[in-house]
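Person: I have long wanted to understand how a fold can be written as tokens. Underneath my words sits a plain record pairing an amino acid chain with its backbone structure tokens. Those tokens are not coordinates but codes from a learned vocabulary of shapes. I should like you to check that the lines agree and flag anything odd. The protein I mean follows directly.
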Amino acid sequence: MSAERRLRIRAATEEDLPHIVALDAEAFPADPYPYFVLRQLLASFPDFVLVVEDGGNLGGYVLSTPPNASRSWILSLGIAPDLRGQGLGRQLMTQILGRLGTEGVHSVSLSVEPGNDSAVALYRSLGFVPDPGGPRKDYFGPGAHRLLMTLSL
């Protein structure tokens, strides 16, 4: 990453919504969240949607659920394809995990496409452990297998 880059992680705002929707479609072209889902998640969990600004543009986002019985889920981590491999995902995850920890969360879960080796490696490096049963077949519907991973805080 260039020393001249001005990266800033902050809570998402209503004004960020169109950019988050576009970023999500770019990061997950085969299965992006519908606009209305991202709108409702942002409205429901405003303190748990973080974005990273890269020179005034959004370079990534992370979306989690608020604590529920000391548990939370990471629902999505999206990084613009041209910015991947530069540590933005790690920075966003570190920020949201810190926030969840201060909110009393003791366990964070997520699901990831089993063949997404870079995402699985990132989550493992942060301390997430795959569920013992391996990938769950058809977790998100026919052919949409997912590896469930959990982190104890």
Notes: The beta strands are 7-11, 49-54, 57-64, 71-79, 107-112, 129-130, 147-152. The chain has a mean pLDDT of 93.
